[in-house]
Design goal:
Blueprint (H helix, E strand, L loop, with lengths): L8 E4 L5 H12 L3 E6 L3 H13 L3 E6 L5 H15 L4 E4 L15 H29 L2 E6 L12 H21 L4 E8 L2 E2 L4 H4 L2 H8 L8 E2 H12 L10 E4 L14
Parallel strand pairs: 1-2, 1-4, 2-3, 4-5, 5-6, 6-9, 7-8
Helix pairs in contact: 1-8, 3-4, 4-5
């Protein structure tokens, strides 16, 4: 089955590592033109773009802090200047912040997580929709988390932001559907990436984590990338305004497998 992503102009925020990198690699392999956004460290993004170019693909790197609306406008301006627009936006950039119980949290640290994860998704979606609505087509995919639904002590800002992105996606989908635009969320569970190496590298932490996953394994970034590609392709043409959980069953309350 063909995904039909060849020559699509796709912007992936936070696209130089982890899940974002896996998405970029898969989309470029499908023939898409990919804008790789990064925040502060250009090296990984530039290496990834060079690798894609060497294999015959098209990719550009775009530095931008997604929490800064002016930087986001500039990022979309670069997509416009390079390829004439953006067909698909994948909002992947995010941070989890410092662990702190709510009454011990630094308000500025809490605010930063909200600004990057929630405001960042809004700023990017807003610029994308400015371009998509007049054309009458486009797709926005917001990467949320199982913590859109599952509470996570010590990370109240992260959970609040991801839940916020979930309902933001539904609202944008409602607004944009009459204009031929789809908006969805994809919520990964425990995915094996460098950012959580401290968990899967430590036997006790890994045992604790696997108890929360009915499939008894962590997911791979490529598994999220494959679902992302399907959702933004025409295969997913009738899907909008919902969250797709790709979590090995983590949101299925695995403890209840042993009785209520």
């Amino acid at each position: 089955m063909e995904l039909g992503l060849a020559s699509k102009r796709i912007l992936v925020t936070g696209g130089s590592s982890g899940i974002g990198e896996a998405i970029v690699r898969l989309l470029s392999a499908e023939g898409a033109k990919v804008g790789i956004n990064f925040g502060h460290h250009p090296g990984p993004a530039e290496s990834l773009a060079a690798e894609i170019g060497a294999s015959g693909g098209e990719a550009i790197t775009i530095p931008a802090d997604v929490a800064d609306p002016e930087a986001v406008a500039g990022m979309f301006g670069k997509m416009d200047g390079t390829w004439g627009g953006t067909d698909i936006l994948i909002n992947n950039a995010g941070i989890d912040g410092k662990h702190a119980l709510a009454w011990e949290a630094d308000p500025e640290e809490w605010r930063k997580v909200i600004e990057v994860n929630l405001f960042g998704a809004f700023h990017c979606a807003r610029e994308a929709l400015k371009r998509m609505v007049p054309r009458g087509e486009g797709v926005i995919l917001n990467i949320t988390s199982v913590h859109e639904e599952i509470a996570w002590s010590g990370y109240s800002a992260y959970c609040a932001a991801k839940a916020g992105v979930g309902i933001l996606s539904k609202t944008l989908a409602q607004e944009a559907a009459p204009h031929g635009i789809r908006v969805l969320s994809l919520a990964p569970g425990a995915i094996k990436t460098p950012i959580n190496r401290s968990v899967w590298n430590e036997p006790e932490g890994m045992r604790d984590l696997l108890e929360k996953i009915p499939m008894n394994r962590m997911g791979e970034a490529e598994e999220i990338a494959r679902m992302a590609a399907v959702l933004v392709s025409d295969i997913g043409s009738y899907a909008t305004g919902t969250t797709v959980f790709v979590d090995g069953g983590m949101t299925d309350y695995p403890d209840f497998a042993h009785g209520g």
